[in-house]
Amino acid sequence: MALLKVNKLSKVFGGLRAVSNFNMDIAPGELIGLIGPNGAGKTTVFNLLTGVYVPTEGSIVFDDKSVAGLKPYQITQRGIARTFQNIRLFSDLTVLDNVKIAYHFHVKYGILESVLRIGRYMEGEAEVERRAIRFLEIFNLADKKDEIAKNLPYGEQRRLEIARALAAQPKLLLLDEPAAGMNPQETQQLMEMIRWIRKEFDLTILLIEHDMSLVMGVCERIYVLDYGSVIAQGTPLEIKNNPRVIEAYLGEEVD
Ligand SMILES: Nc1ncnc2c1ncn2[C@@H]1O[C@H](COP(=O)(O)OP(=O)(O)OP(=O)(O)O)[C@@H](O)[C@H]1O
């Protein structure tokens, strides 16, 4: 059974059909790529899946329930978390606080308890801190926990953004161009990390990426968007050899 089922999804901005009749089925545990030329509609699909935009038409069913039209925080609580093409951290907060904030979605205590800092609040806070540090350790950021997020080098900010998304304990993780701005060695490490977190956290992952070495290296299936519509889907090998995809996007570059 599908974890995510998207049916005939469309988004119209003024006269522009940014996403048109988009269908996608993702089974639990899959690692899927979404590729296509600039402006093809990839980020708009992510924005529809995460409640940033309300669909013009179509349905989004996640974990057997409709999530179309819900607010972003409601969708996070249902189990979909994301990173952004342009990193969006709480740049003036510490590394640790960036991860702790994501945990607060999942720790429940009353206002009185939190104001008085008693009972479950204090236990909750200690637990949140412990778990947040564990995430930072996984992402090799624990020794930077007290640094201000904006002072981290670019590659570490990207890792922190993924750590924060995972701290919300999603079932589905959406990564928007995770390798952007990375050198080949960092991209290679990122690939290994993506494979590892999927296994470790029992995740399903959908990623947008222009770096074909990463997409072809980690994804099991790939969807190709062009002008808002899916023009192909299949295994990396099928996509590499698809004449329509080569013409619209890949050119002669992929070997
Ligand atoms: N809020 C908006 N208002 C109007 N048009 C928008 C809006 N968001 C996106 N678009 C348009 O929708 C189309 C798809 O944009 P989108 O950002 O989804 O493409 P993309 O495939 O993610 O591109 P890239 O690879 O460059 O990030 C573009 O023509 C874009 O200008």
From TrEMBL:
Domain of life from the UniProt record: Bacteria
SUPFAM superfamilies, sorted: P-loop containing nucleoside triphosphate hydrolases
Entry annotated with the keyword Nucleotide-binding: yes
Transmembrane segments: none
Record-linked CDD domains: ABC_Mj1267_LivG_branched (cd03219)
A Gene Ontology biological process term: L-valine import across plasma membrane
Protein name according to UniProt: Abc transporter
InterPro entries membership: AAA+_ATPase, ABC_AA/LPS_Transport, ABC_transporter-like_ATP-bd, BCA_ABC_TP_C, P-loop_NTPase
Keywords: ATP-binding, Nucleotide-binding, Transport
Organism: Lucifera butyrica
Domain ABC transporter: start-end pairs: 4-252
A molecular-function term among this protein's GO annotations: ATP hydrolysis activity
Any one cellular-component term (Gene Ontology): plasma membrane
